UniProtKB/TrEMBL annotation:
Keyword hit for Zinc: no
HTH tetR-type domain boundaries: 17-77
Keywords: DNA-binding, Transcription, Transcription regulation
Species per Swiss-Prot/TrEMBL record: Nocardiopsis endophytica
Residue range(s) of DNA binding per entry: 40-59
Protein name in the entry: TetR/AcrR family transcriptional regulator
InterPro entries in the cross-refs: Homeodomain-like_sf, HTH_TetR, Tet_transcr_reg_TetR-rel_C_sf
Coiled coil: none
Amino acid sequence: MAAERTGGRRTQADRRARTRSALLESAARGLSAHGYANLSLERVAGGAGYTRGALYHQFANKEELALAVVEWVGETWRAEVGGPAAAHEDPVEALCALARAHAVYCRRDIAGVMMTLQTEFSGRDHPVARALERNVRPLIAEWGGRIAQAREAGALPPGPPPEETASAYFGTLQGVTIAVAGHAPHDVRFAEGAVRGVLGLPPAHPAPFDADGHST
């Protein structure tokens, strides 16, 4: 009986996790397309295949849902983009790999969340704005460190302070990938070309990329 109860609890937890994941993905699509102010909770629930009551069972209000989406998208990005790129020992290759992987990530319809919310909450003191800042600040510090490392090794030319360069790197990367999102494989080439310019690198030798942004 105990095993059955444990199995039942596990099944219930799994169902709850699946519901939460579906609602977060639907909300991410809604935030990307419509922003926070115009986000419809009823449309979010329907897009995930649930009722509005099921959504409120998971999230108390729109703000709590948006905060969860910011955390979820940040975790997804770090798993699919930031982590694999950071695994490169060569800091220049890490920075270029990050740009390519980000372009591939931006083919997804949830990828516009951060940029949409950053624009909407710019200059505002709001929990969502603070959550965005908590996601961005460590990235600037981490990749500013890789820029400093590359400069010390002579792989990048001198330039503005590393963290300012990292801010320009991410701003440029976001702008380019929004403009060419989904235009594979050229989105990958544009993304890498743009950040190489910010970093003071010459253009990459033209090479074909596969659908996942890897050179062939």
